[in-house]
Amino acid sequence: RKEVEQDPGPFNVPEGATVAFNCTYSNxxxxxxxWYRQDCRKEPKLLMSVYxxxxxxxxxxxxxxxxxxxxxxxxxxxxLSDSATYLCVVNRGGYSTLTFGKGTMLLVSP
Amino acid sequence: SAVISQKxxxxxxxxxxxxxxxxxxxxxxxxxxxxxxxxxxxxTLIATxxxxxxxxxxxxxxxxxxxxxxxxxxxxxxxVSNMSPEDSSIYLCSVExxxxxxxxxxxxxxxxxxxx
Lengths: 110, 116
What we know:
The structure holds two protein chains of two kinds. Chain A contains no helices and eleven strands. By secondary structure, chain A is mainly β. In chain A, the strands form two sheets. In chain A, strands 2, 4, 5, 9, 10 and 11 form a six-stranded mixed β-sheet that branches. A five-stranded antiparallel β-sheet of chain A has the order 1-3-8-7-6, with no helix packed on it. Chain A is globular. By secondary structure, chain B is mainly beta. Helix content of chain B is about 0%, strand content about 50%. Classes of the chains: A mainly beta, B mainly beta.
């Protein structure tokens, strides 16, 4: 099993739709979790951290399920500008040892 | 966040040559890293650039192939040596701005390398 697994997509959704991505991780000792966004030919940028209690930032909601070892990202009211690849990132337990998923591609159409 | 300047942004190189990528940060940071992102693949950590000592390489990466310098807390270089087409990739410098379990990485804009 890969350390961090994501559905590569692409997810094609119309503007205004709600879309959710899941990500599973294999190391039960993982301590911290993040979602990054990567636009085509650009560097990854931190979108949000994922906390055990779940957290929300505007249209974005992230949740963590430690028992099932997955994290999710929910995007409400999708915008064209949300089109990007979303990377699931997990700290596998060591200091500064982050593991990246391959990413899920989102395409929002008019 | 930090301003991370990485150069060159892209290069096309001949097989057998070497390329040095520079990463400059606008503030002093303890942790700097070099990642590689091959087409269709996830980011893979090459090494941690340690200030004043040899870099710490991940499995599958060696100093002879990817020598790294870290002369101070704001600057690092990665050299891709004796390049082959398999080295064609995006190379990313990154820094960590918080310690402990809530590591947050910020990335430079990347160097897109194509080896002919």
